[in-house]
Amino acid sequence: MKRLVPVALLAASCWLALAGFAVAHHVLGRPSYSLGEDSNTPPSLQAEVRIGDYYVTYMVFPAFPKPERPGRINLYVTRVDDGTLYPGKVAFTVREASWLSWIGLGGGEAGIGVQSLDDGVFRQAFSFHRTGDYIISAAFEADGERHVIDFPLRVGPPPTVGPIGIIVGLLAIVLLSVTLIQRRRTMTGKIRGAREHSK
User: For residues 101, 107, 112 and 117, what is the CA-based torsion angle, rounded to 10 degrees?
Assistant: First the structure.
């Protein structure tokens, strides 16, 4: 009987090792090959802000937008007091978020669409040709006032060296240059002093 226990354990181990592993190909009950850009993937950006008498919630899909790939913005606009939906239209524009744009230079704003309410959501599709940082603006008019919300959008992988890295690199170059100049002045002073002393 004692000999049968190890043999049974060895047989069970071999049987489990030879058994095939199940390969999951469904996500939330749907085949993974049917998931596209418009599927229920998590958004890359989601936030809610209050503008005037309205709450504005925006979401950007997919989680990591890429150049030459379609994406979309979902915008929800509801009144603060009673939660009713904003019935008008929302205009979407985009501009580059570069260093030049912050000081008023570079490319201007371009319209990407004007959307009406569709099943409680303002949906705006987008597709960018190149990697970069962008600012999406959504504007609507309510009660005689124009409301605009801006939110950032990163398309493609982030740069390996960002603005902070560039600033740190420039500071390092400046400090190294100052150090080399000081050493050179010190060496020049020592050489002059030695020459004057030898005279």
Answer: 30
As a whole number, mean pLDDT of residues 159-171 equals 74
The C-alpha atoms of residue 25 and residue 3 are separated, in whole angstroms, by 42
In terms of Cβ atoms closer than 10 Å to its own Cβ (0-12, 13-18, 19+), residue 71 is buried
Homologous superfamily (CATH) for 40-155? Domain of unknown function DUF4426 (2.60.40.3340)
Task: Please report the pLDDT score of residue 140 as a whole number.
Answer: 94
Q: By C-alpha distance, which of 19, 14, 39, 17 is closest to 28?
A: 39
Q: Give the whole-number percent of the chain exceeding pLDDT 90.
A: 25
pTM, to two decimals: 0.59
Q: Is 18 exposed, middle or buried (0-12, 13-18, 19+ CB in 10 A)?
A: exposed
Residue boundaries of the structural domains of the chain: 40-155
Residue 72's nearest CA partner among 9, 119, 121 is 121
- In sequence order, which residues have a C-beta less than 8 Å from that of residue 41 and are 6 or more positions away? 35, 61, 62, 63
Per-residue pLDDT, 103? 59
Average pLDDT over residues 11-32: 45
Distance CA 140, CA 151 (A): 15
Neighbours of 115 (CB within 10 A): 19
